[in-house]
Amino acid sequence: MQRRNTIFVLIAGLLCAPLASWAQNPATPAANANLTTMVLIPGGSFTSGAPVDLGHQLCKKFHNGNCSRSWFADEQPIHTLILDPFFIDKYEVTQRDFERVMKRNPSKFKGKILPVDNVTWQEAKTYCQKLGKRLPTEAEWEKASQGGVSTVYPWGDEFESGKANFCDQRCSKRWRENQFQDGYEYTAPVGNYPPNGYGLYDMAGNVYEWVEDWYAKDYYRVRPHKNPKGPASGSKKVMRGGSWINYSVGVRPADRTDTDPDDRFAFSGFRCAQ
Ligand SMILES: [Ca+2]
Ligand SMILES: [Ca+2]
To answer: Does the predicted TM-score (pTM) go above 0.70?
Structure first.
C-alpha cells in the first residue's frame, strides 16, 4: 500500500479508527537511551533499487489481486551508488524531543517515546535544522535502511513477525496480514524492534520517514551515481520505510512513496542526518 491514491483511502479509514482505545505503551530500552544519538554510516558503494517483479510478487503473496505492478516501477533501474559518509539518527524522532525543540506536539498518538507523527515535511526539516542537522537524502536513507546487507529486508529475504511494526493482525485495517504479529495496532515506542546491521531502529515500519528529496517516478533512470540528491524540483516529496498502516512489502529498504510536502498523516514521521 504505497501510492497517494491509496493514502486517501487510508486516511478515511483512520478517521474512523478507535483512537481512544490506544493506550500508553510500556517502557522499552529506548526510554532511558539518549534519543539524539547518531550513527556513522560509512562511505562507499551500495546497491539501490529492486526489480519491479520482486515487490509485485511479494505483494501478491499476501494480498492477491490487491497489488499493482506499477506501484513498484519506480524502484528501477537498479544502480550501484557511491555516497560520502554521513551520520543518521539511531531512532525516529520522538515526541519528547520534537516537543522540546519545536514547543508543540502535533501527533495523533501521544506518548513521549512514541515517534512524532502528523508532521509536515517542512516541520521535519525545521526540527533538524534547529539541531544543526538536516533531512537525509533518499539515497542516504536507503543505504542506512539496508544496514549493510542487500537482502530484501534488513534481516533476510522473507518477512518475519516481530522485526518491524506494520499492519499485522493487531491492525484494524481490512488489508492487515493476519499471519504476522508485531504487538502494536498503531505506533510503537521507538527502539522496540531489533536494530539493523548499522544499529538503526525502525528504519522498517512504525512511521514513514520524510527525506529531503523531491519525488519523480522515473528519477532512477536519470540520477547521478555519486551522491544523488533527487530532482531539482517537484510537487511531491519522498517518504520511506513504510509504517504501522502498510503492507509488509512496504517496509523494504527499496520501497518509495511520494506525497505532498504539506500532508500530515498519523503514520508519517522522520529522523535527521548530518
Ligand atoms: Ca502493527
Ligand atoms: Ca520508520
So the answer is: yes
Residue 114: CATH number of its domain: 3.90.1580.10
| Nearest in space to 251 (alpha carbons), one of 216, 208, 190, 193 | 208
The pLDDT value given to residue 35: 74
- Number of structural domains found in the chain: 1
Dist CA 89 CA 92 (whole Å): 7
Instruction: Kindly identify the ligand whose nearest atom is closest to the C-alpha of 201.
Output: 2
Q: What pLDDT score does 31 carry?
A: 61
- Nearest ligand by distance to the CA of 210: 2
What residues contact residue 104 under an 8 Å CB cut-off, 6+ apart?
none
Cα 225 to averaged position of ligand 1 atoms, centre (Å): 35
Domain span including residue 239 = 4-12+38-269
Ligand 1 center–CA 30 separation, angstroms:
18
- Please, are residues 215 and 69 in contact by the beta-carbon 8 Å criterion? no
CA of 113 to the centre of ligand 1 (A): 16
What does the alpha-carbon distance between residue 167 and residue 126 come to, in Å, rounded to a whole number? 30
Give residue 247 CA to ligand 1 midpoint distance, Å: 10
- Please give the distance, rounded to the nearest whole angstrom, from the Cα atom of residue 246 to the centre of ligand 1: 9
pLDDT along the chain (274 residues), means of 10: 41 36 45 80 98 96 92 97 98 97 98 97 98 97 97 97 97 96 97 97 98 98 98 98 98 98 98 98
CB of 108 closer than 8 Å to CB of 266: yes
